[in-house]
């Protein structure tokens, strides 16, 4: 039987309002989302691995200043850049994750190297840096990651003593600009990857859901691949990505039902704002969000490309 391929990506969910979005920003976001999803899809069409497809897609967004991952990451309270990333491959349930890393241009590459070249799943801060050095990673100066927009966002949040704004100065001030990808390859492998700078004004080595397998990222062949974005404190407690997979595995829910249940159920009731992308073993894609928007794109099993921003699209 012909094995379908498909891919979906996100560039973060949250409060994204039409009235605050300039035409220039909208075009730049849509163009980069399309570039990202096509980068991942071209790996799949060449017979490449689902994990490699997710990495190719995520790297495009890490390299863009428009998203909160790699270049363009949000700033910590101490005006530093501390990034988190994770990847899971569904064939053998292998996974790799890093948290609180500095100076690594593409954190998703380091998470992938943890998965492939270490005996561990999750490395943090200084230890992850030493592992990166041992694996020959180049370090870039912190100034590479910092954008004026993130400096202004930090100052604005410090004034209010918040780590999420209640009033928007930028169209995506309350958008959680984490990036992620899920892919299904010609071998039937599912993979998921997520990368983030976390939340603006974070303190004390705060880590969100993005690098946590089963919260921000999850993939298992024959079932589903999931990447999430939102307020990590809620997504960790509801184990969002793993819960979605469990609903499909134990309750036989389809990907649409399971994803809607997870995002609009107890998570929403608790106040957990955000969204997710999910891709099942047949290549069926679902985008779920309880926020006003989520930057997202997909190429489905028929090769149809879609790129969207708002929840009502
Ligand atoms: N989930 C991320 C975190 O809490 C934030 C985001 O989605 O942008 O670190």
> Per the principal axes of the C-alpha atoms, what is the gross shape?
globular
CATH level-1 class: Alpha Beta
CATH topology, by name, is: Glutamine Phosphoribosylpyrophosphate, subunit 1, domain 1
Please count the helical segments: 9
Low-confidence stretches: 165-172
The ordered string of helix (H) and strand (E) elements is: EHHEEHEHHEEEEEHHHHEEEE
Distance between the termini: 33 Å
Going by CATH, the architecture would be: 4-Layer Sandwich
Q: In the residues, how many domains can be counted?
A: 1
Query: How is the main sheet built?
Result: 9 strands, mixed
- What's the helical proportion of residues? 25-40%
CATH homologous superfamily grouping: (Glycosyl)asparaginase
- Total strands: 13
For the residues shown, what is the average pLDDT?
A: 93
Strand content: 25-35%
């Amino acid at each position: 039987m012909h094995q379908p391929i498909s891919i979906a990506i996100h560039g973060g969910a949250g409060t994204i309002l039409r009235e605050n979005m300039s035409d220039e920003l909208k075009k730049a976001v849509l163009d980069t989302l399309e570039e990202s999803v096509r980068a991942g899809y071209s790996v799949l069409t060449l017979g490449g691995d689902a994990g490699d497809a997710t990495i190719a897609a995520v790297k495009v967004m890490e390299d863009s200043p428009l998203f909160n991952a790699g270049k363009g990451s949000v700033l910590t309270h101490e005006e530093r850049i501390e990034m988190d990333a994770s990847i899971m491959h569904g064939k053998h349930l292998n996974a790799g994750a890093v948290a609180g890393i500095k100076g690594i241009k593409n954190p998703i590459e380091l998470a992938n190297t943890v998965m492939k070249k270490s005996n561990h799943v999750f490395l943090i801060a200084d230890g992850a840096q030493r592992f990166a050095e041992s694996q020959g990673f180049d370090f870039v100066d912190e100034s590479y990651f910092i954008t004026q927009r993130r400096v202004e966002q930090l100052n604005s949040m410090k004034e209010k003593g918040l780590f999420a704004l209640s009033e928007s100065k930028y169209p995506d001030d309350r958008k959680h600009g984490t990036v992620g990808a899920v892919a299904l390859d010609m071998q039937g492998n599912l993979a998921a990857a997520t990368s983030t700078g976390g939340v603006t004004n974070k303190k004390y080595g705060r880590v969100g859901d993005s690098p946590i397998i089963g919260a921000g990222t999850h993939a298992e062949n024959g079932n589903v691949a999931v990447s999430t974005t939102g307020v990590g404190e809620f997504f960790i407690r509801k184990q969002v990505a793993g819960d979605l997979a469990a609903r499909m595995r134990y309750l036989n829910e389809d990907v649409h039902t399971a994803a809607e249940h997870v995002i609009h159920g107890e998570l929403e009731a608790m106040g957990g704002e955000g969204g997710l992308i999910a891709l099942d073993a047949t290549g069926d894609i679902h985008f779920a969000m309880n926020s006003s928007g989520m930057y997202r794109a997909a190429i489905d099993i028929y090769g149809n490309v879609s790129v969207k921003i708002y929840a009502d699209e």
